[in-house]
Design brief:
The protein is mainly alpha-helical.
Amino acid sequence: MRIIHKGRKQILTAIVLYALSLMILTILNISFSFYYFSVIAVVLFVINMEIYWKKENLSYEKELLDLDWLLSEVRHRYYVHGMVDEAVEEAYEVCKNSKLKEIIYVIYEVLCSVDISLSKERFKLRNQNRYFRMFLTLSLMVMEFGDKTVEGQSLYLRNLKNLREEIHIELKNNQTLKHHFSGLTFLIVVPLTTLGAIEYWGLSNLAELSAYYEGAYRILFYAFLFILTVGLYYLFYLLKTPIKVISKRHPWLKQASTHILFVRFCRNYEHFFPRTLEKQRISLMQTGETMEISEFLCKRIICGFLGLSISFLWSVIFLASLWKDGVLFIGLLSFILGFLIPIWVLKYRVRLAKVYMEDEVFQFQSILMMVMYMDRISTFELLEIMEDFSIIFKKQLCQCLMDYDVGQKEALQQLRENTYCKSFHKLIDNLMMCDEIGVTKALDEVALEIQFYSEKRQQQTNYQLEQKGILCRFLSFLPLVITIALYLILPFVTVSLSKLMEISEAIATGK
């Protein structure tokens, strides 16, 4: 799971905002310092990420609402004359949204294309929204296999209705998630901006606090609070961003991992920690990561040396004259932390992926329910549809489709071994029986359990969203609590107690 990085516009926006902030500081005659430099950098980082997230979130919601309108129009017009391509064409004619109109035109071109497979692949490259892909797949299947009546109603109309329900569920969950995270970013960032005011107020009331507010304690607390703030915000950003798997190559890591030193390190690491290496390999597979285990180890070493370099520079600039004996300790600790951070991030991504696995399996079940009654549909086509709609299991399904020509059962069995979700294993078992007893009979079990899983899914989704909200509300107060406890109360209490001890000693000695 990856978060799409910001483009040039966002970077230019950050530079412009940073320049304006420095101009404001100059105009207000505020003395420039590393503290103000760092605060402005963090605030601009947060503002930039928030603007980007809101833009992406609004775009995603608008796409879903546009598709909901399109499904409603196509459903109504198909009900009138029973032709998919004509229904899409008429929806195109009445559409007033230019962006949606362009997408509808491309869908209509695919439906009328001579080479449907090639046109469909081009559409996939242009449109990454899985709900649009599913609509196109359902429409193509009706045009290829024809519509049929199931339980007294058109299968195509029922499928469009089910797809609209999935869209509404997605919109509702997205709104709930936004509600849980509203206002938390402000709570995370505010403590950073109060450190200067705390120092000014403390020193003006008690000059002895200079030992804390002008020494090594101040620098270490600054570093800790800045790292905590940025880390917490990035965690919140991951939690509130819709999960995505993006195929990404790592040419620099791949090239670095082929160096003789890294090759020897990987061999020694595998020799001494075989179980740990296997767990890491499985974790990379679960999260849809494209890098090999050797590249991941290379990344960990690079992060370790990066942490060592940053701590060395920090120590030379700020702590060399204050804490010479601790420079080596800080460097070693930074290397260890840098080496472990990729593991912690990977474990977090695995945990996040497991949360979404059950929900994605239910979505697979809903999709298969839409297409299981189609005549002449094959297991390969079912796997293709699942791969189009997949996020968590996308990499494994792609590999299964590539190996399918070699052997169907072997490919499905390998898919089962490459995944770690019991409910998905049951679904694969059903797919293995499709060619023997037919798709409809093989998926009857899914049809019987779909109502139970529907209720379970809604309860589980609500519980997960609520747990996210509780966790984030708790963590959002952490920087504020730490700032008050360690940077305001602790120095005052320590200095006050030392003054009290001095007074007590003076009274005892009679001086």
